[in-house]
Protein 1
Amino acid sequence: MERIQEKHYKIANGEVQLAVSEAGQGQTLLFFNGGGATQVSWKRIIRELSGQYRIVTFDFRSHGKTTRSPDVSFESFLGDAEVIMDKVAGPRPLVIGWSLGADLAVWYAARHPGRVAGLFLIDGAVPVNLVIDPEDTRRRLNTPAVKFGPLLLYLVGMGYRLTPDEYATLTIELNRRREQLLSAYEQLDCPVELVLATKSAGEKGERAERNNALWRSGGEQLGRLYPEFSLQWLDGSHQLPFKEPVSLACSLDTFVQHIQAGSSIPTGDERPSPTDLALETPQKDGK
């Protein structure tokens, strides 16, 4: 996607000031970040997009350039999303969500029929609870890396201001909400594409092996229950926006094209590769 001038501003959700960035014209693509991530997460994907879009990114509460809030419940994050949808998104945006952001996108669309043109979900919103022992989760997240890591991340625009206990509470709540996700999927009235990682929980240890198997099973369950959804697996970790930006951008461009054309979303071998899409897309001068 061509470099275009960005606008940066704040939108209020009560006492929280949400940091927003937008650029371009055309179909609105609205990006919902994952927990512990910021707008910076999307830069590589956005750079690889070939279509003409209005791009909107923002930081949830206690993340990035948005102000901190003592309320970091799932519903409070959903409230941030609703404010952005009401005040920034415009009519029928296509929502792209990663991790926590994917779950928020599904719950938002379920509560607001007709409001969203489509959902492009990256390694999230799978109906499976991966937290078996909440107290163990709290112990594992109460480490110096979790305490001080966000301070270092601020140097590259990726900082967040959740304490280890707040991060653990959000993680536990998110996973509990995933036990009810199928009820949200039942209410959707828009096209959906899911791109899931085969090694979402990592590659080492029994916990990773178990969680990856549960993740796979949950994703395949969605595919069986909703054959109209497009579901693809990428061989990689949870960090897909950083590791697979070209593949994700290609899939997203194709997803938008099919929605705009009113045609079905391709699955499996029907989906073009990044090379195919590049051959079909006229090259801009100087590219």
Protein 2
Amino acid sequence: MDKEDKSTFHLQFAHLFFLILIFVCIGYYFFNQYQSSQNVLIAAQQQKIDTTDQQLKAVQEEVSQAQQSNQSTVDDSTIAAEWQNRVAKVICTWNYSNGETYSGLQGSSLLINLSGYGLVAVTNKHVVTDSTTGSPLAPNTCTVGVYGVGARTTNLNSSLDVDTTPIHSLRDWDVAYISLDDTHASQQSDNSVFDKSAAAPLKICTDNEARVGDKLIVLGYPAIGTDRGITVTDGIVSGIESDYYVTSAKIDHGNSGGAAVLVKDDCYLGIPTWVENLGGFESLGRILKASYILGN
């Protein structure tokens, strides 16, 4: 091959090389374009998947909240049914020597078999104390009854101080025990509810069991409420003091002395106490802790 042929060959080879290089560059460009379009499609698909997941989670959360709400309603009604025969109405009367009644008070109570006392109705001290005469006197009679089931009446001597039997009061707290055993009380109707209350164990909340925000229900016989049975009000633990829980649940003269039940653990939280402010209207209710009432 002479010099001219070699030069022609090199020139053709260079043209071929550059042609191949151009094709490679064009191919690489279109490949990148394809890859970019695929990435855009993948990102769009992933965004749709993420959006769907978020919507699914939102629906699942709504379903869960609805189920919890329904379950809470069922729990409240179940707890109310469980406790209603342990919460009794209390009506105490004070009589003149001729038998005429000059004063009467009413409230609610919890039926419990208390160690050292037997079957008692735990209520507020102010329900069994009349101060109109200038000194606290125990009533002549206290009738404790569960609507539609039965009642017992405890007879007392009104000259006795409220710290004597058959009414026992806690000196530092607005709490009193009315004895309902056969020694002090007479049966007016069906006695089974009292026998069951005496035998049934009472689940008591510990002092550290309740937290601010926990739901509770109060069972009792409020002055303004149904006249055909027990009334249930609900609320939360709004605050905690050393001896009391502060609650948003409605408490008035009638259901004061009843039972406050912590919903989450279905246990006896304490005794609801009505609080009157200077204007004569109720403020946040107070619940004396069970440990102060029952000594646990």
Protein 3
Amino acid sequence: MGARSQKPTHVSCQRRRPPPLPSPRGGGSKHPPLIFAMQITRTITELRAALAGRGRPAFVPTMGNLHDGHIALVRQGRPLAGTLVASIFVNRLQFLPHEDFDSYPRTWDADCARLEAAGCDIVFAPREADLYPEAQTFKVQPDAQLADILEGHYRPGFFTGVCTVVMKLFSAVFFASGGGTALFGKKDYQQLMVIRRMVQQFALPVDIVAGDTQRAPDGLALSSRNGYLSAEDRAKAVQLSQALRVLAQAALQPGADLAALEQQALQSLNAQGWQTDYLTVRQRQDLQPAQPGAAAGTLVALGAARLGGTRLIDNLEV
């Protein structure tokens, strides 16, 4: 997995220096910097022990290969709880057989350095045998109306894998406290909605907080898979977000024919060398097809397309 096999580790990190304290002799002297420990836990038992008595944590689940979008979630979660937990686990259950589970980048040292600098307190980095000690035959099956469309249509079973691992991670992270806060990025918009619905349906004591999509200066949504892009494809990759912006603006025009606009957007992107799965405008509340005349602030444009060998997704709230 993304983590090397080793014993539980404490990584020291310096945080904000407190104000100078007066010395007993009346002069000024600086207080030494506060030292915190970023604890690395491998098993559910270790994680629960580390969290015992620490209150309701904030949690950022990741598959590693971290970028600024992940770090923004960590920083967003830092003031929401006394303890910030991040997980690093590449979840086999959400990959189809032909997808990139084996080649998905594992960047353990860089990930730990970034999490430490962002103020993470505990990293949960289980091996596959730690999280799935036996075949995971019990799985969370999300509502097909939400999970079998869009990403779920092109990646069947994906959200079953996502929900199953998130449910297990929530059990590990929030067991000691009885609940807390979990942060997910809007870049994976459908995933965010599926997780919210799962939490609601199972009455889980977890507050789901959304983080805005982080973008490169040219507008490309940050993604761990952007690293797969060649230099030429990286220069073209922003075309996906541009197509979504054009589609979103057109969808708000009076009398807009959404089906025709979506087809036009798809054909235009394909003409630029993409293989497009979908470009569509949906209702934010349930991701069902948008109705003509829908008000601004109620829609989201979503897209997924392959450029070269890399499949990218993006969205834009309208």
Protein 4
Amino acid sequence: MHRRNGWGWLFGCVLGVAMGCGDSGEPDTDNPGTGPGVSACGANGVLLCDDFEQASVGGAPDSATWQVQVFNQLGSISIDGTQAHSGSKSVHVVGTGQDSYRSVLFTTTKPFPPQNNSFYARVFMRSKSAMGEGHSTYFGAGAADDKRMVRIGFHQHVFETNLIQPDKEYELLSGPWGQPDQGVQLRAAEWHCVETFFNGADHELRVWFDGNEMTGLHATNWNANLSKWSPQYAKAWFGFETYHGEQDELWYDDIIIGTQRIGCGG
């Protein structure tokens, strides 16, 4: 596994900017463009909220909130008008190419540092491909200098998370190594809701998939007797970063960062 040298980062629009805040109900994870949107924008504790409806198709996410970074120009990030969880637009991340290492990310620093070094993130995401064998990242958060970070992605065909520290990397899988049918898998060509609690105050990580917690990714000591391991969270990101040549295209929509769990219903 490799640790990247630079970052491109995450999440969305300032509270109240996102559209569709009157919607409600459960998410539709099968059909694009029919989800309830970002009705949770008005919930208590929301710090950032973006449904990308105000961005121009073919352009980048709002530069006032997001920074786009594509390593060696291997890939692209743009607003797409053909796929959406709610409304008509989403962020399209193209992570295909020849090199084994590729990093295509969009980042935010706006709501950071969070109170008590802790925050929740919620995103709806859609992948063109099923999860591969090689280690790759969908999103994460970390310190300003990139020396300490927590990443959520896949490895061995299942969801995984890992902790990057200056001298070592730690990993947790959502199922036993080499047994993908016992882990949690993101199904291709469907919208899914992923939530994460980056609990820096108590040095804990929790991850939910379509409303159900992935208990294998619940990190407290990373099975290594670690104690004070959390980064000082200064930014967060979404996109695609691969360390073993995996190929994928992804769409991200209805992203929220907040001080409380958002849930998948809006």
